[in-house]
Each structure stands twice: as C-alpha cells, then as structure tokens.
Amino acid sequence: MPTSPAETRPLLHAACHCGGVRFTVRLTDGLNTARRCNCSYCRMRGAVAVSADLADVQVTQGEALLTLYQFNTAEAKHYFCSTCGIYTFHQRRSSPDQYGINVACIEGMSPFDFAEVPVTEGRAHPRDRADGKTRIAGWLRYQANGHSE
C-alpha cells in the first residue's frame, strides 16, 4: 500500500506549559520553516514558529482551555492556554491554510536549538503590500556560552 505524504512526516507531540492543552502535529517541511516575526504582537510574544497545514494539527486534550486572541484585521487566530498563558499555535493571516506552531511546545524542542532564525517583516504584512511577498527584516541568533550549569 503506498504511503501518503503525511505518513512520511513524523508525528510530533506538543503541549502548553501546564500540560492542559496537548496536540499532535506534522510539520510541512520539518524545522526548515522556523521563523519569528516583528509585528506588534509577535515581537512581544517572542516565539519561534514552524509551519503545519490546518489538517495536520490535532488537539488531543484541553481544547476547551484554548483561548483565542485576534487583533487589527482579526484574520489571524492566535491560540493560547487559558491556564498557563502559553501561546500554542496560530492560524496565519499570510497563509490561512496553515498554523504557525510554537516550537517550544513541541516535545524535545526549544527555540534555543536554532543558531539562527529569520525574522519576517510583519509591521508591513505581505497581504498589505502590492507585491504580496514576505520580506526578511533580520536574523535572530543564539550562541550558547559553553557553560552547562
């Protein structure tokens, strides 16, 4: 029996800080989609996000704990745990068929696993520009100091 593309991508387990919200996800292109954004909300939230198609995210526990936050155009849907406040994922304005997943919620992953993450220009959103293209505003870099205490 042929394997579907979704079956070749690993099923990852994720949760908020308190564990009240749990979900599974299959990423569209592994960690290659990791990025941050400099829009007013994302720069305060500070999360590194990776991409998943809407159908590839399944909340397995605590859906009632998810709280929705929207602002400005109210097109993007930002979800977070109402108990611990952790941002879990959001339905993107730029790609409404995808979620941005908080990489820190994925078991065994951390935003500090990335030496460099592109920061997209969100202050001038791609959907608000004539060319519709995403621009890179800069790069977020992390380098461990070599001490493990």
TrEMBL record:
Which is an annotated Pfam family here? Answer: GFA
PROSITE patterns, A to Z: CENP_V_GFA
Domain CENP-V/GFA: from-to ranges: 12-128
Gene Ontology MF, one: metal ion binding
Arranged from A to Z, the UniProt key words for this protein are:
Metal-binding, Zinc
* Gene3D superfamilies, per the entry: 2.170.150.70
UniProt family annotation? Belongs to the Gfa family.
Protein's recorded name: Aldehyde-activating protein
Question: What is the scientific name of the source organism?
Answer: Pseudomonas cremoricolorata
